[in-house]
Amino acid sequence: MSDALDENRELTLLLLLTARKDAQAFRRLYDRTATRMLATALRILRQRSLAEEALQEGFVAIWNKAGQFDPVAGAPMAWMSTIVRNRALDEVRRRADNPQVNTDDLGEAAFGTSVSAEQTLLDLEMSEALRNCLGELEGKQRQALVLAYAHGLSHGELSAHLAQPLGTVKSWVRRGLVALKRCIDYCTGQHETA
Amino acid sequence: MKLPDPEVRDSLCAEYTVGTLRGGARRRFETLLAQDPDLQRRLAGWQAMLPTERQRESLPQPAKAVWCGIRRRLGFPGPWREFFDRIAGWHGWAVTTMATLALAIGLGIGFETARRAELPSTGSGVAMMSGQDGEFLALVRIDSDRGMLRVALPGGLQPPAGKVFEFWHIAPGSKTPVSLGIQAALGGELAIRSGRRELLRRGGTLAVSLEPAGGSPTGLPTGPVLFTAPLTGG
After folding, report:
1. Which residue out of A5, A27, A128, A145 would a mutagenesis test of the B interface target, given it has the greatest number of B Cβ atoms within 10 Å?
2. 0.85 surpassed by complex ipTM
3. Which of B118, B119, B140 is nearest to B130 (CA)?
4. pLDDT, tens digit, 9 for 90 and up, residues B119-130
């Protein structure tokens, strides 16, 4: 647990230095986190070359936006992951919108045997509260959330993958998030007193 | 278009974070986000909570070309320049070590080894100063060679009347703080007392306490320790 805290401190420091345009700190930030960021992009894009492009774009954005990171809020890894994830999701959407790209291929790649919500959960780092609260969700809601979040599946892709109507998967995602938030707020003591 | 209902606001932030908010709905959300600090805060809350990849052996490494691409895009100088810039920097003894290593091994290979030997393991050049609840206050730049601390706190922090801030160094494994000097207002430069400049090279912790004017009369903190800054890797 203290390793995570130490890493948090170091990454926060490196981000603050990066915001001051310290290229050495930025390089160190890259060295410490790029491998995990690549994994994040690979889960969504499934192709190495695309994932490395998203990684590169992501880090350029991290350099440019480091000043927006709030050190008091903490969570440097989550902040950076979000940037890389968004780049990866943008690429997925670009390919989905582009009629020349064979979206069936993307579908195949996304639904390969390695996409398992339960396995993915084991490979992700998260707070105790989040892990417990995810555990308390209904299996279908949890599966939909993990596939959407970690693997970048859209509502339409979820519907196809889980063989459920669109309305059903939308509801699983929405209700799953509501239940998750309620549970986490409760666990972290932020619930309203009844 | 406004979104007064907090549950709707949370719900949209959540969906945006997870990635299921797409198309027109996503664009509308982003437009709202740009103008709405509360929405930005909620979004940040969601983003901070969600999972990241666990470090593990089996993860594939990014190709070297990725970093080269980043460096090129951002217009960084080439690796040779980075090496010399680092020598010219303020990392004191660690820089000397790297320079010696490079000269001993030979330029090309030595450079790569030196780069990996990179950050000094003690007397780190920058530290983060936080309050007792862990809230970040300021960066402290440490210049061991010149015996200076520089606290990056624009505007400074004024102590209560009749008090000053005193800086202490606590060596690793020690419980005894050693005074480095005082600042009438927290922020800006502190010239460390002579005879104590070497302490910073050894890692440990910086601490700041509130003392009567002129500093602690006893040589140990008499007032509350308000801020600390661990020297990383020490």
Report:
1. A27
2. no
3. B140
4. 333 333 677 777
